[in-house]
Amino acid sequence: MYHALEVLPLTPAIGAEVRGLDLQETPAPEVVVKLEQALLEHLVLFFRDQDLTPAQLVALGRCFGTVSLPPIAQPHPDEPDLMIFDQTEPIGAGADTWHTDASWIENPPAISILSAVALPALGGDTCFANMYAAYESLSPTFREMLGNLKAVQDITAPMRMARDKEVLQDTIEDMQRRYPPVQHPVVRTHPVTGRQALYVTENSTDGLVGLSPRESDLLLGFLLEHAKSPVFQCRFRWEPHSIAIWDNRCVLHFGVPDYHERRIMYRLCIEGDRPV
Q1: Cβ pair 15, 9 in contact under 8 A
Q2: Confidence (pLDDT) at 160
């Protein structure tokens, strides 16, 4: 049901809470247009008290494009395009690094949607960071240099650094055969806004093409630390039936691993283009 749609910014850099909308009913086309405009402006939108069934959540996702299940995701038994995250010990599981979803595939998702199903009594927030702002805060000379660089995105990068030493080399090699590393620009241009954003992540960016290992480590380390500045961020405290929708092309996110109780989330990804 559509009442008076309100979009309330959370920080100057990123994030807005949307009120006046019942997502149990699939939004009308004119409402979707307003949400898309708000998403382009604020990069991540938050909704409270949205008790959606899995089917309703998938229907919501389809308003924004083609729903697609990324590789190796755990699908919902009734909705194969819907992913399930069910965790009690999140440290080292991958979401506790600054990342974009599935940056290691040729066409990473354009938009991601996350819905809270079951939450710990305390903790489990998610932080979001504006990569337009991270890029634009760099000096013109530095931005010019980055514009010529590409980064290797590799699904096995976190496996090689995992605290779980039982990850075997043959497992890593098999994963690389199934999902070969790809190269994406360090600075990508958003296909709708035309703005440029940093596009490196902590969990799958595995080096900068054309640089020595030492140069790559130093420059990538700087970029990743720079991207984590609180100036570019907002932090969202989940409540039951909260939903977040974000632009995966220009936003990094980080799941705070400060809980030891069960946390269940549903996630949808909307197909995107190859970064340029």
Answers
A1: yes
A2: 67
Beta strands in the chain (DSSP E): 2-9, 16-21, 44-47, 83-87, 111-118, 126-130, 150-153, 182-185, 187-189, 196-198, 205-208, 233-236, 243-247, 251-255, 263-270
So what's the pLDDT on residue 3? 58
Q: Active-site residue numbers?
A: 99, 101, 253, 267
Whole-number pLDDT of residue 167? 56
Structure tokens at 65: 């494009």
- Placement of tokens 């960071």 in the chain: 129
Are residues 141 and 100 in contact, defined by beta-carbon separation less than 8 angstroms? Answer: no
Q: Give me Rg for the CA atoms of the chain.
A: 18
Bridge partners, 252 (sequence order) = 129
Task: Please report, as a single letter, which amino acid is at residue 17.
Answer: E
Q: Tell me the per-residue pLDDT of 1-35, one tens digit each, with 9 for 90 and over.
A: 455 899 999 999 999 999 999 999 999 999 999 99
Nearest to 126 by CA among 79, 77, 154, 87: 87
For residue 265, what are its two tokens? Answer: 């989330």
pTM to 2 decimals?
A: 0.94
Tokens representing 165?
């030493």
Q: Is residue 189 packed enough to be buried (19+ CB in 10 Å), middle (13-18) or exposed (0-12)?
A: middle
Going from the C-alpha of 204 to that of each of 50, 100, 147, the distances in angstroms are: 32, 9, 20
